[in-house]
Write a structure and sequence with these properties.
Length: 203
């Protein structure tokens, strides 16, 4: 793993960067028990958060979307964490997997559940709504869309708001996984998150 972007110490940040830093480390992510560290022992942001300092206006908006997905969603905690772990498995993101397996344990996910999610499967313990949410998540990851039948099934299981939030979650954590590849040097496992087909050149 080659880290391309050095972490910045809190004292090295300009005021705009410091605003992003405070929003991440002093917001709801920092309240209550911490499942994973947001910064290292010297205060440098970890994982995808460090790259958000490159563009404070965009970084501030991105972290706000992440906060809303985590803390203001109508999805249950278990559905949210299972969906995040499905995205992490698809992209082969070690940081997302380790961070959200830690969160998942606090939501009642067992080691067996998380092993199933790492393998791209639906845990046996999932209830009907959780199974539907995961099927929809896998469809979004696989095809980038939902069939009419899948959409109707999703709305029945989690509501139209839940479908919107689930698609946002899949896009948000996929974006973070991409940024972790570009800036933190994460590499996908073999067979994970294969490249999209290249557009065909008209003959």
């Amino acid at each position: 793993m080659t880290v391309r972007l050095a972490g910045l110490l809190p004292g090295e940040l300009d005021e705009q960067q410091a605003e992003v830093y405070r929003a991440i480390t002093g917001g709801r992510r920092s309240a209550g028990p911490q499942s994973f560290a947001l910064a290292d022992e010297d205060g440098r942001l970890r994982g995808p958060f460090n790259a958000m300092l490159l563009s404070p206006p965009v970084g501030l908006a991105v972290q706000a979307v992440g906060s809303a997905v985590r803390y203001d969603s109508a999805l249950t905690d278990r559905v949210r964490e299972m969906a995040i772990l499905a995205v992490a498995a698809h992209w082969g993101s070690a940081f997302e997997r380790e961070a959200h397996e830690a969160v998942g344990r606090g939501c009642g996910l067992s080691e067996r559940d998380m092993a199933a999610l790492r393998a791209g499967s639906v845990p046996e313990s999932a209830d009907p709504a959780e199974r539907t949410a995961l099927r929809i998540t896998h469809a979004l990851l696989r095809a980038g869309e939902l069939t009419g039948e899948e959409y109707d099934e999703a709305v029945l299981a989690v509501g139209a708001r839940g479908v919107f939030e689930l698609t946002t979650l899949v896009g948000y954590y996929g974006m973070l996984a991409l940024q972790l590849r570009v800036f933190a040097g994460e590499k996908p496992a073999a067979g994970q998150a294969t490249a999209l087909p290249q557009p065909q050149t008209p003959s």
